[in-house]
Design a protein that fits this description.
8 helices
Length: about 240
């Protein structure tokens, strides 16, 4: 049963609350450290490949767990992520549709060509400069816009076969809602059925679902209910606070 944690002051949980709540529902949670992540030292950190080998990293992480743990049901596997993780989620469903029964993408990066041309420089957390890192694309969007388009979910909507829920926020200062709207319109144009909800100016903007406010908790509950429809966890969520 879903019992959201309520700290005295709303804080960003950095996904710990999400993992805890999913485990409480009976899920096995796998969170692969794809290349470009900070968990394995500088050399691994410098191997960022946005929209490239990181997609395979996540897929193979899940396949490894299926092969090594008999209690993991390969017929009930879902995938979810936020921001860059939402981008990786979309590409996993595009490239490996047979691997996932359901997917959720929260405020997902959707159009690299647009993003690389509009985002401010400097923050490694939102790797504008690293899109063209030698380990990945290798060139700027100006020099190789076709590759940025090729790696953008908004230009590959025809590949979707997996049931998908997408959330966005009107006040998102990182992934502008316009970028996600483009993705949804692309799905519609290709005749894909996608569930989509835009939250109006939620507290926490880009990270609103990772913050323990009433809006964040309700949004996560919507995600969990959507996943449960396809994955049938042992302890499905009912309603917040119960």
């Amino acid at each position: 049963m879903y019992r959201p944690h309520r700290p005295q002051n709303p804080i960003c949980t950095n996904y710990a609350t999400v993992v805890s709540e999913l485990i409480g529902q009976g899920y096995v949670v796998i969170a692969p450290e794809y290349r470009g992540g900070a968990g394995y030292g500088e050399a691994f950190y410098d191997q960022i490949d946005y929209g490239g080998r990181e997609i395979e990293d996540v897929y193979l992480g899940g396949q490894w767990a299926i092969e090594h743990y008999g209690f993991v049901d390969r017929d009930r596997v879902g995938i979810l992520g936020w921001s860059h993780g939402g981008f990786i989620t979309l590409w996993n469903t595009f490239k490996y549709p047979e691997a996932y029964k359901v997917a959720y993408a929260g405020t997902p990066v959707s159009n690299l060509a647009l993003r690389a041309g509009t985002k401010a420089r400097g923050s490694r957390g939102y790797p504008v400069d690293e899109y063209g890192a030698p380990s990945g694309i290798g060139k700027s969007a100006y020099d190789n816009v076709q590759e940025y388009v090729r790696r953008s979910p908004a230009y590959n909507a025809h590949m979707l076969q997996t049931p998908l829920l997408v959330h966005a926020a009107t006040n998102d200062s990182d992934v502008n809602v316009f970028e996600v709207d483009q993705l949804i319109e692309a799905f519609k144009a290709k005749g894909k059925q996608v569930e989509y909800k835009v939250y109006q100016d939620p507290p926490g903007e880009h990270s609103f679902e990772l913050i323990n406010t009433s809006v964040g908790e309700q949004a996560r509950l919507e995600v969990y209910r959507f996943l449960a429809r396809y994955l049938n966890p042992p302890n499905p969520p009912s309603q917040a606070g119960q």
